[in-house]
Structure formats: structure tokens, C-alpha cells
């Protein structure tokens, strides 16, 4: 029951905030899943919720998307997402890097947890450090941004921060920026879920239990509600204090995963 409460509250809150405040649903939701399930299952489960939520948001704001930007950004992103997802399945199949004893317990440091944990920490710092607050890139770098965002999305489920950095300063109106980012995210999600799906069927990922399926459904519904509320409140919101709290929590979770404590 606790996993349902935590994951659904995160999905509800973050799915609304991500529409206009720069928060990424996958960035926060994936660690919430990872507290209860293997990290590779957490990434795949987050991808399902992320895709379903973005399809819902596309119905709400997708008509405002700039399709020329979508093509330049999302198509390279989809190809890179496939590569990132393949690497995730490879890392998940490797034995632990090392192990150690702490507090009378043996903790194993798995490569997949270490990689994803370090990425969580890195992206959390992007939100926390003021020097990265206004990170943005010129329109000519859209294909590179798509590659980077898609690759890290496929590998760790975290892509929102990079996507926003490459789309925020290319001259899109607010509604067009939201619609474009949403459509791009759908394309990347479909690409990486294809690889995750194949991986489940070839048993490289841990089997999906009914508990995971039920939690994915509950989180998806919570995310829908959050997105619907967010569209009713579509204005610039400053949530720096909450952003700081979430960033610190992500660093703690990422450090725990990378070190084998979680």
C-alpha cells in the first residue's frame, strides 16, 4: 500500500508541474518506482506512465506543436533512445561490480544501479545549481539535443531537463513549447518502450509482477489527473523551494542506488 501512496502522489503532483515549471515526470517518478522494484523494471514502468500521460497531454495541447522542431529533435531522439535502452538491458544482465558489508548486511553494487543512480544525481544538480537554471541552446543544436535527451531517456528514463534546455530558447510560444515537447516525448517513449518490451520477453529484465502492473495503472491515472489540473492552471509558476527539496531527495536516492544501499 505504501508504494501506491508514494508513487501516485508523485505522479499526480509532478505531471501537473511538468507542464509549465520545468519538472520532469520521469526524473522524479522513476526513483519513486525504484524504491520498490529493480531499477530496470522501474525505468520501464516509468516509461509506460510517461507515454500514457504524454498521449493524454498531446490530446490537450498537441495541436500547438511545431512539427518542424519535432522532426529535428524527436527523430534523432528516438534513434538514440533505442541505443540507451539497449545499454540498460545490457547493464541489467551483468553481475554486481562489487559488494560490501555495512550494519551486518551485505550490499551489492550493481552496474545498472550505479549508472542510473549517478545520472539521477547529475540531473538533480542541473535543477539545484543556479548556474544551470537558465541553461539553453540555439536552434541549430536541436538534433544534438534530441540525441542527448533520447539517449539518457532510454538509459535512465530521465530526459525532461535536457529536452527543456534545447527547446526553451528557440522562439516558441508557451503553448507551442509545451505541445512540441509533449509530442517529442511521445516519439521517444514509443522507441524506448519497444526495446523494453523486447527485453521483458527475452527475460533480460526481471519478470513483471501483477504488483508492478497495478501500480503502473494507478500511477497513470494519477498522472492524468495531474495533467488535467495543470492545463487548467497553465501559467508560469515559481516553485524554487519545492524544486530544491525534490533535488536534494533525488540526490539522496541516487546516492543510495549507486552505493547499493537501496
Describe the structure.
The chain is mainly alpha-helical. It has one domain. It is 72% helix and 4% strand. It has a two-stranded antiparallel ribbon. A hairpin with a 2-residue loop joins strand 1 (98-102) and strand 2. Helix 3 (39-61) packs antiparallel against helix 8, helix 3 runs parallel beside helix 9 and helix 6 packs antiparallel against helix 7 (160-167). The longest helix is centred in the last third of the chain and has 28 residues, at 174-201. It starts with a helix and ends with a helix.
Gross morphology is globular
Count the helices. How many?
Answer: 10
Count of the separate structural domains: 1
Strands, count: 2
- Taking pLDDT < 50 over at least 5 consecutive residues as the criterion, the unreliable ranges are 204-208
**Proportion in helices:** over 70%
Quaternary structure state of the chains depicted: single chain
- Ends: how far apart? 19 Å
Radius of gyration based on Cα positions: 17 Å
Strand proportion: under 5%
- Strand sequence of the main sheet, in spatial order? 1-2
Q: What is the typical, i.e. mean, pLDDT? A: 80
Tell me about the biggest sheet?
A: 2 strands, antiparallel
Order of helices and strands: HHHHEEHHHHHH
- Strand-pairing-aware structural class: mainly alpha
Amino acid at each position: 500500500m505504501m508504494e501506491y501512496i508514494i508513487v501516485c502522489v508523485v505522479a499526480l503532483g509532478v505531471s501537473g508541474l511538468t507542464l509549465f515549471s520545468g519538472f520532469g515526470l520521469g526524473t522524479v517518478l522513476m526513483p519513486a518506482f525504484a524504491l520498490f522494484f529493480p531499477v530496470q523494471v522501474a525505468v520501464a514502468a516509468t516509461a509506460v506512465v510517461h507515454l500514457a500521460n504524454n498521449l493524454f497531454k498531446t490530446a490537450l495541447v498537441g495541436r500547438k506543436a511545431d512539427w518542424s522542431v519535432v522532426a529535428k529533435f524527436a527523430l534523432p531522439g528516438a534513434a538514440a533512445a533505442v541505443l540507451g535502452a539497449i545499454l540498460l538491458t545490457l547493464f541489467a544482465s551483468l553481475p554486481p561490480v562489487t559488494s560490501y558489508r555495512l550494519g551486518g548486511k551485505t550490499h551489492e553494487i550493481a552496474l545498472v544501479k550505479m549508472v542510473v543512480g549517478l545520472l539521477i544525481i547529475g540531473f538533480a544538480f542541473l535543477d539545484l545549481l543556479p548556474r544551470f537554471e537558465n541553461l539553453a541552446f540555439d536552434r541549430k543544436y536541436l538534433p544534438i539535443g534530441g540525441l542527448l535527451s533520447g539517449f539518457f531517456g532510454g538509459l535512465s528514463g530521465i530526459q525532461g531537463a535536457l529536452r527543456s534546455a534545447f527547446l526553451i530558447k528557440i522562439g516558441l510560444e508557451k503553448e507551442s513549447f509545451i505541445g512540441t515537447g509533449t509530442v517529442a516525448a511521445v516519439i521517444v517513449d514509443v522507441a524506448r518502450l519497444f526495446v523494453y518490451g523486447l527485453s521483458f520477453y527475452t527475460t533480460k529484465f526481471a519478470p513483471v509482477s501483477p504488483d508492478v502492473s497495478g501500480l503502473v495503472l494507478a500511477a497513470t491515472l494519477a498522472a492524468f489527473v495531474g495533467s488535467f489540473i495543470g492545463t487548467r492552471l497553465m501559467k508560469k509558476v515559481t516553485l524554487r523551494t519545492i524544486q530544491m527539496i525534490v533535488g536534494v531527495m533525488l540526490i539522496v536516492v541516487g546516492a543510495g542506488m549507486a552505493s547499493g544501499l537501496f
